[in-house]
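As noted in the main text, all predictions were made from sequence alone. Below is one such record, for Testosterone 17-beta-dehydrogenase 3.
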Amino acid sequence: MEDYQHQLLTVIGGLICFCALVKCIRFMKYVFPHTWSGLPQAFFPSLGEWAVVTGAGDGLGKAYSFELAKRGLNVVMISRTLEKLQRVAAEIEQATGQKVKVIQADFTKNSVYENIEKGLQGLEIGVLVNNVGMLHNPLPCRFLNAPDVDENLVNCNIISATKMTQIILKQMEPRQKGLILNLSSGLGTFPCPLYTMYSASKAFICTFSKALQAEYRAKGIIIQVVAPYGVSTPMTMHQKPGLITKTAEEFVSESLDYVTFGDEIFGCLAHEILVIEFDSL
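Prediction:
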């Protein structure tokens, strides 16, 4: 009996060690992304000439627009405020030499997609970043005390991702290549009280992205959900950057090195470590 218990405990211990080793090996790709799966310089342009970024006027959208232009893509920036788009577009063109096209659209309205599709006609789109999103309230509050903006939030956080994906995925599929990045949130990976609607909308993005990747992986199209925790943007009221909270530029530059690392990432090494800590609790 004692021998049996000893063998059982040995097997269990071995399995635990093996699982820990596998997690460590998988984690190393975030520590050494260029060694693990270094993307060639031509990776992003090889997908297509243009990138499309929603919510591109500031924050993460602006950072994605700049970084993708630096990596050799022309950029279509879509957002609500035309003056802001035009100003950022001029900065990107001057800094990178890439072409930039702007489309004004308020994603809380469902009437914008026909005009967006017309604006994208004739462009070879290799990358789509579904970044646009909104909070129902900048401060935590109970569901019944929140402003009555549920329809706007659903349109902006959910419908925008599905509609933009429909428009662009049907162009990517015949070419059998493309990259779609859907911005979720760490708050979408678990039920988050006091941010109920926002958390639920971002949980949709996670499930939508993973299911879509399962459908289109064989077509050569990468669909990845990016779920950051702390990033200093206007939405987060410009939290002070630090060990966990990253600037938008830092986060985007790092997360684009991880686009081949699976159907869900948290975008930077600090956030990947944070998730491991949460999982161990």
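The beta strands are 50-54, 74-79, 100-104, 125-130, 178-183, 221-226, 231-232, 246-247, 264-265. The first helix runs from residue 2 to 31. These features were considered when defining construct boundaries for the mutagenesis experiments described in Section 2.9.
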